[in-house]
Design goal:
Chains A, B: Pfam families: AIRS, AIRS_C. Chains A, B: This is Hydrogenase isoenzymes formation protein HypE. Chains A, B: It comes from Hydrogenovibrio crunogenus. Two copies of one chain form a homodimer. Chain A is α+β, with helices and mostly antiparallel strands. Chain A folds into two domains: about 170 residues, PurM-like, N-terminal domain (60s Ribosomal Protein L30, Chain: A); about 170 residues, PurM-like C-terminal domain (Phosphoribosyl-aminoimidazole Synthetase, Chain A, domain 2). Chain A contains nine helices and 14 strands. In chain A, a hairpin with a 5-residue loop joins strand 13 and strand 14. In chain A, helix 1 runs antiparallel to helix 4. The longest helix of chain A is centred in the middle third of the chain and has 18 residues. The interface between A and B is large, with 84 and 85 residues. Strand 1 of chain A pairs antiparallel with strand 2 of chain B, so a sheet runs across the interface.
């Protein structure tokens, strides 16, 4: 059993049945106890001596690098779902937003909004998951904030994380680089996160073995860069799904994106759920997938490198950049027909992340 | 009328009566419109071309500096209150958390959690206030995220901001530096923010002209440093009030802190409200106050410099560090008696920031 797992179990035994009160957000004694015992117990203390309101770190070891900064709030429901939790998501989601720029993620913040009445057990599990995910992604959670709102003013627990990374000034991974002929590569099956959340909500009588694909992508991306793949543009594929990212590419450079339906990597079970529920898998959320645009001549090599990485099983070319249908994404179906894949208009599944 | 005010009014006229739906958080078309028209309309776009998920900036103009990173979530209710709003607060609060380390705040993130059904008017007012506060504090809001939760799952609107600043490596403003004889200086009247919020809630039949003291402190702090004041430790005085900060000092170095009640700067009206409602002004929240610890021989000069700054009217020495009652804050009353001022135990006023 890991260190974090040990700490989690002993803390839950000790105080798991206590509940969060407004005093835990007051700046006073109760909050101090919460921070000391739960938060710093898992994240560690960034500085010696009394806790400060800000983390200070030295980046002089990274000359010729710029700073990458990002933020995401996490409001997924339920807090725990097959294969992952809001805690893992709050770390990996922000790590991935930093990483797709080519940056190495280093430091994270953690802003908690807790609902009065939340069980300490629920909070401890989430914080332990954040610690576990940070360890796996090799980032440090160095500063934070805790607010408590009255019962009914939030749904259990929301998390915001901001992330800071360093990006080599020689890199320029941005949508305007995309050209006709480039290939879009994805690092595995789409839709797992969306289906896992749907099943976890229990509103539908949906039995599935699918688990969320939530994972950090920094290792995979840094491997691609180290192997010399000249990635031109990259996004992680999250809410809005693959369709949304490909539309951002098409609109961003006013070129066409052509998907081959037969090439979309997807588990049979996910396909089945989509057919039964009338969902389009291209819009299903993912939390451990990226869509990288690379020059055609590097595409096979990129797929090969990615496939060998634990975060890249089932990697493949999923689309290409074309001159036709500028600004639009079109899918060539298995039966030869073509259809436009637009940006999501309504909301397929709320509070997915 | 300022540029921001103009933009706000024309946008409210155009779309103020629309409401936020779950689709505004879906990653699709509605969200794109919200970001383009409301968010980027006020914050500007950090990069040319399509929007990226992370902001990249170069800090090579700051050699011999480290990075300061902080975060705060804002859940204050109501969203608008006398003298300020959650939008001003979300910028100034984070600017101040960065600044009290001696760092120059540069970049902010903005994470929004919106409740389905929120009026666009309410959102636009808050975003315009954030833009106004950022302009005043000379920081840029460079990256963000928007989530929408179903009606009843949050109370209108929560904001998280994270801040990045640069701090000169020659500075070392930290609690362990505090020594016996040092003076604690505050930059003006305490309790205004707490009383303004209390009045704005309308639950009590409280008529007051007090407005929130919400303001950025970076200009004041940089002036003190530029004038050569060797600040030893510094905190902004927010939730938990002056009592909390002084207790953090006392406990942090295991020395005593002695307050002279007669020296506490406070408006007569705030004193009156406290007497009527049985509140202790030492625990009332502030949003534009700092408590700086300086060597005794610099105290008068520091007060003089601060008093000349717009953010430091009514600055004064409020306490001193003593050997007695180690780890505790004691107040010498106007009538000669002494009482211990402990950390806040319960919750005096929830959702104050």
């Amino acid at each position: 059993m890991s260190d974090i797992e040990d700490k989690k179990n002993s803390l839950i035994e000790k105080m798991g049945s206590e509940i969060i009160t407004l005093a835990h957000g007051s700046g006073g004694k109760a909050m101090q106890k919460l921070i000391d015992q739960v938060i710093l117990g898992f994240f560690g203390q960034p500085n010696q001596g009394p806790l400060e309101d800000q983390a200070i770190f030295d980046l002089s070891a990274y000359p010729n690098h710029s700073i990458a900064l990002t933020t995401d709030s996490y409001v997924v429901t339920p807090l725990q779902f097959p294969g992952s939790s809001i805690g893992h998501l709050a770390v990996n989601g922000t790590v991935n937003d930093i990483s797709v720029s080519g940056a190495i993620p280093l430091y994270l913040t953690c802003g908690l909004i807790l609902e009065e009445g939340l069980l300490f057990k629920e909070l401890i599990e989430v914080i332990a998951d954040m610690a576990e995910a940070a360890e796996q992604a090799k980032v440090k959670i160095v500063t934070g904030d805790t607010k408590v709102v009255d019962r009914g003013s939030c749904d259990k627990l929301f998390i915001n994380t901001a992330g800071v990374g360093v990006v080599n000034n020689s890199l320029n991974i941005r949508i305007p680089n995309i050209e006709v002929g480039d290939k879009v590569i994805i690092n595995g099956d789409i839709g797992d996160h969306g289906v896992a959340i749907l099943a976890a909500r229990g509103e539908l009588d949906l039995q599935t073995t699918i688990t969320s694909d939530c994972q950090p992508l920094n290792g995979l991306i840094q491997t691609l860069l180290a192997e010399g793949i000249p990635i031109k543009a990259m996004r992680d594929v999250t809410r809005g799904g693959l369709a949304t990212v490909l539309n951002e590419y098409a609109q961003g450079v006013n070129l066409g994106v052509l998907i081959q339906e037969a090439q979309i990597p997807m588990k049979t079970e996910v396909r089945g759920v989509c057919e039964v529920l009338g969902l389009d898998p291209l819009y299903l959320a993912n939390e451990g997938k990226l869509a990288a645009v690379v020059p055609a001549e590097y595409a096979d090599k990129a797929v090969e490198i990615m496939s060998k990485h634990p975060a890249g099983q089932n990697s493949c070319i999923v689309a290409e950049i074309v001159e036709d249908h500028a600004g639009r994404v079109v899918m060539q179906s298995d039966f030869g027909g073509k259809r436009v894949v637009d940006m999501l208009v309504g909301e397929q599944l709320p509070r997915i992340c």
